[in-house]
DNA sequence: TATTTCAAGGAAAATATTTCTACAATGAAG
DNA sequence: CTTCATTGTAGAAATATTTTCCTTGAAATA
């Protein structure tokens, strides 16, 4: 992984429809080596997938709720069951195990508060939870799928562009 | 927007590299109308973009921190300035204005705790904040870019597939 | 310094795939 | 029975992917 790989990743994180030739041009490479690099990044799993990102408004996914969860059952069985339950809910788009006084944090996406209430009832019907607290987002000011690449570990200097 | 559009979106949310012909086959349509639908979904902005999703581990983005922010300055100027500052940080991948006792919530992605501390110092150097509290994620159990489409508003019944 | 080796890039072309356009057919609604 | 929206078939044009083979330059070794 060198600076060229990073440049390629940056471009594809922004726009995955770019043709290999265009990526190549932008990073200052010809198509063949650029194609080989992308291929490799995919094989290695650096690039996990390519997806379409939708407009939340347009698909009626207007409300984001952060759900903080505390549990009594601090054991792997409970977590396993809980994870499986959560993964079934398409409304839960993110799910973290946390340090600190909150045990788990969910990001839930629904059309409105009423739908959130329905989701909430479905959730607590499926699994026992000690304590749930919901925080509503009023506005999504920034949302990106792009990971910061400045921290990426570079094996070596980028190969000098040969004449 | 009917059930066919929804089906198309579901597929493209999962995998944006699918050829139109493949999408068509899966939704039970021939390529032309499927192509036209996708075209329209893009024009209307339902599909916002297509992106490559990277593996956080592989690009050294291992630690997620949720940063809760309280401010004294409840005015549009401060928010504007704050937003601009935040948008400059590639480490901040999500940013919400919240209801409740927390004013803003950030999701920050960095390689490790030391980097988070550096980020934190950079942030408070740039803008005055009353109160910051950081919660560290130990594990990302679920993360998806797919929005739930079950809530999508359908104009009408899907057109009957014609013979 | 000469020579070998190796990793990476470049050009070009074959292949494959995709996109996009015309035009005909269908079925529902009025 | 007319109209309108939508689909289907087929094919041309454009693009993209992938392979083959060659070149280059850096590093290693004698």
From TrEMBL, chains A, B:
Gene3D superfamilies: 3.30.70.920, Winged helix-like DNA-binding domain superfamily/Winged helix DNA-binding domain
InterPro entries: ArsR-like_HTH, AsnC-type_HTH_dom, Dimeric_a/b-barrel, Tscrpt_reg_AsnC-like, Tscrpt_reg_AsnC/Lrp_C, Tscrpt_reg_HTH_AsnC-type_CS, WH-like_DNA-bd_sf, WH_DNA-bd_sf
Span of domain HTH asnC-type: 1-62
Cited CDD domains: HTH_ARSR
UniProt GO cellular component terms: cytosol
Any Pfam family: AsnC_trans_reg
GO MF term set: sequence-specific DNA binding
GO process annotations (BP): regulation of DNA-templated transcription; response to amino acid
Keywords: DNA-binding, Transcription, Transcription regulation
Official protein name in the record: ArsR family transcriptional regulator
Lineage: Bacteria, Pseudomonadati, Pseudomonadota, Alphaproteobacteria, Hyphomicrobiales
